[in-house]
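#structure-requests
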Amino acid sequence: MARVLDVYLGRSLAGHFTQDDSGSLWFRYAAEWLASDHARALSRSLPLQAEEYGRTECRPFFAGLLPEDEGRELIARRFGISGRNDFALLEKIGGECAGAVSLMPSGEQPPESGSYHEISEHELARLLGLLPQRPLLAGEEGVRLSLAGAQAKLALTIREGIFLLPQGGAASTHILKPSSPHFEGLVENEHFCMTLAANVGLSVASTSIGQVDSIRFLQVERYDRRRLPDGTLVRLHQEDFCQAMGIPPELKYQQEGGPNLKKCFGLVRSASSAPGPDVLRLFDAVVFNYVIGNNDAHGKNFSLLYDGGAVRMAPLYDLVCTQAWGGLAATLAMKIGDERKPERVRAANWRKFFKDAGLGAATAEKRLRTLTKDILASALELGKAHPACARLSSIIDQNGARLLSLDW
């Protein structure tokens, strides 16, 4: 017997995600949705059509809503289901996802507003402490939350400094990412990089550092949520580049079949309502990630944001200097030109990248050099205010100097 999840965009039923007894998956848009004046595609990889989409076509989008790696397996074990069963996982935790998507048991509607449970700092510390064993608070009464990525995180609503746990499908406003025992200084690292990006004029999610009891955490304001003047909190739809291209999350790295930079620029040019500015935003993001030493900038770390009728490249997120830890990959998630090793990227590789981005060499080189100089100057000043991040400043200075010394 087939099992069905109703797929909502905001408060509107957009379609049905189905799994049969053999494990086959398919997705079909609802007839009422297709007939409505405000119908829009769930994903660029799933254009509006009356015919159903099979597993190959629909799985990349739906699997892309779920957490990855160990977190995914821990959640699956908590519910007694297979970590490979995307449908079963979304059935358990798909009520509050990235963007405006909610997955509900067949016949159920998302609640009008859900509810919020105020929690003390002591209770927040307890919940953050649970995350290593219970990612996304899976199994907590009233919580059905799914967020992509491998890092531990908790979604909350924050009002005037008060922490509220969303329940019953209520929307969250912030994501909290606690410190990691595996990567010392991760919270400070990401906040430094995100602040640096904002300081040089890049569009990024807003972050701050908090602490409850002995637990430090990065507090990230969600850019896919908006509060209206009357106080109503609305979800804005979004999808990452892998979802938009129909690439499953386990293939997010270029060397495993994931997108390369040329495809990413092609996506932005074809999808964005303002392709000119957004191509430049993506260009700046690539240069910035190179200079800060973020080797993990893969296809799921860039997104499209759907705001009303406009489609724009979403603010940047997950900006981290991965070169600060020796045990992580020493190669770039997406090649620059034809080169994966950052220390071997030469002027010829950058010129190929300019061509892949569809930009003139002279204009692109000037923009690269200007941005790199701005990053180095800003990192120097930011490092003075954050002496604990001296190693990051050193890595950034080294990467930037290498880039500026290239023989163009």
